[in-house]
Amino acid sequence: MNKKTPLRQCVGCMEMKEKKSMMRVLKTPMGEIVLDTTGKQNGRGAYLCKSMDCLRKSQKNKGLERSFKMSLSDEIYANLEKEFTKLEE
Predict the structure, then answer these.
(1) pLDDT tens for residues 4-33?
(2) Phi then psi for 85, rounded to 5 degrees?
């Protein structure tokens, strides 16, 4: 029997992709927004494709804000962009 591959929807481009191929953005129990590189931290997660493009799209369409049911400051998006850039290197 084949195990089903978990799919997640990118909050940027709205495409369904394999969970493994995506980045998890996390809202911690303290309300911080961080990139969850392990995919196992506690908190509410939303998924993004591993591209800066999708991060920008999610800022424009407020995908992350809908997922976390809160508004996000530009500062938070700037921090996420920094973390993203580190991962791309």
Answers:
(1) 889 999 999 999 999 999 999 999 999 899
(2) -60, -40
Q: Is residue 1 within 8 Å of residue 26, measured between CB atoms?
A: no
Please answer whether residues 59 and 33 qualify as being in contact, where contact means their C-beta atoms are separated by less than 8 angstroms.
Answer: no
What's the pTM?
0.87
Residues 38/41/45/47 CA torsion (nearest 10 deg) = 0
Q: How many CB atoms lie within 10 A of CB 27?
A: 20
Strand segments, DSSP code E, in the chain are: 7-9, 16-18, 22-27, 33-36, 44-49
d(CA 50, CA 41): 18
Domains and CATH numbers, the chain: 7-88 (3.30.1230.10)
Q: Which tokens is 23 given?
A: 């980045």
Return the number of other C-beta atoms located less than 10 Å from residue 47's C-beta.
Answer: 24
